[in-house]
């Protein structure tokens, strides 16, 4: 089985400007390049998991998201950084929508991933996957700043960090 570094998109890979779906609106978070490089070097799959409710709200289309992800993927590949897959959920009421584990389970099954040896990087409470006695998700590293995380640190297998640089420091220790 493989280990994976799961990444939320808006707020982790790029700055969250609210319903980002155009290439010209992507502003990369500088530390993401080092995070992906570290994961690649240490043999982790890198997989983006993102809620994209703007589709369900009629703000943009599935094709817009596919096109953006293709451009982001190509840009990263041009920097010799490998993202193994991109998953998104468009529907507000779906088992795939984070914090429900649907996207995570799809990624796990497609890429043969051991979730207990994997990590999720996010910036909001919905990036902490719902778990129960039978399902254990990845350890989650959250960055402060975009959303209220006051209760997040009380959840099992969740750590909260001041900024992306602190998460990168942690990844150097745990990956």
TrEMBL record:
Site, as annotated: Contributes to substrate recognition: 97
CC terms in the record's Gene Ontology section: cytoplasm
Domain of life: Bacteria
Name of the top EC class for this enzyme: hydrolase
InterPro entries per UniProt: HAD-like_sf, HAD-SF_hydro_IIIA, HAD_sf, Heptose_bisP_phosphatase, Histidinol-phos, PNK3P
Active-site annotation: 8 (nucleophile), 10 (proton donor)
Site residues (Stabilizes the phosphoryl group), renumbered to this chain: 50, 98
Gene3D superfamilies given in the database record: HAD superfamily/HAD-like (3.40.50.1000)
EC number in record: 3.1.3.-
SUPFAM superfamilies: HAD-like (SSF56784)
Entry-linked Pfam families: PNK3P
Cofactor dependency: Zn(2+); Mg(2+)
UniProt: substrate binding residues: 8-10, 16-19, 50-53, 97-98, 124
GO biological process: carbohydrate metabolic process
Transmembrane segments: none
Binding site residues for Zn(2+): 89
Binding site for Mg(2+): 8, 10, 123-124
Any one Gene Ontology molecular-function term assigned to this protein's record: metal ion binding
Keywords recorded for this protein, A-Z: Carbohydrate metabolism, Cytoplasm, Hydrolase, Magnesium, Metal-binding, Zinc
Family, as annotated: Belongs to the gmhB family.
Name of the featured protein: D,D-heptose 1,7-bisphosphate phosphatase
